[in-house]
Amino acid sequence: MKQKIIDAYARLSLDYEKNVDTESGFNAFYERPAMLEQLPENMTGLTALDAGCAAGWYTEQLLNRGASVTAIDLNAEMIAATQRRVGENAAVLVHDLNTPLPFPDESFHHIVSSLTLHYIEDLSLPFREFQRILKPGGQLLFSVHHPFMEFTLFQRPDYFTHEWLLDVWNKKEAGRVEMAIFRRPLQEIVNRTTQFFTLERLIEPQPVPEFLEKLPDSAKSYERLMTHPHFLIIRASKPQ
Description:
Blueprint: H1 2-18, H2 20-23, H3 25-36, E1 47-51, H4 57-64, E2 68-73, H5 76-86, E3 91-94, E4 108-114, H6 124-133, E5 134-145, H7 147-153, E6 163-171, E7 175-183, H8 186-196, E8 198-203, H9 210-214, H10 219-227, E9 231-237
Helix pairs in contact: 1-5, 6-8
């Protein structure tokens, strides 16, 4: 499945670079505002890892808040897009979160992982590494697909099953793209998180009003997101 994900995001890289920031309500006006609320506005003097950086939007936001940022992604095309966005202002490299991270112990104050961990089958692998490279008291902030959304949208017969799903995305630049996603119940996400970190907040976001203002043709999606969870955000910390 990893190669399918790499190939899919290679095709999607132009969409993420050109369109997602303004035309994807699910990203721009739903997940991102809720994630940013959980980060300090002033991150001067802090180190941050963008784990699964895609085209570098979060990398740029972390830089704008004053952090010293490192960004990693599995896909080389996404890394190139991030480099075009931030230049030499961040350290940017290709890396697979299924393997040990190339950073010393206690390197980062913050780790941000946006809509990435649902592409990984065994969460204990990245979480163990995140715990290792976070400083004591450091924060892990991540978003994933909400298990309820996957269970209902894909009409699965058993909520508690752990399984790979195939979804089809239709994008302006890439056209039809088949994406592999790993599904697991909510208790698995929470229990894996608390195995390594202290859970601080569990957030089921709702879209901000700009969603409807900027994308009036997406009123049906806006109304659904106001009443049905689609993404899940977790903020956790490494014990002091």
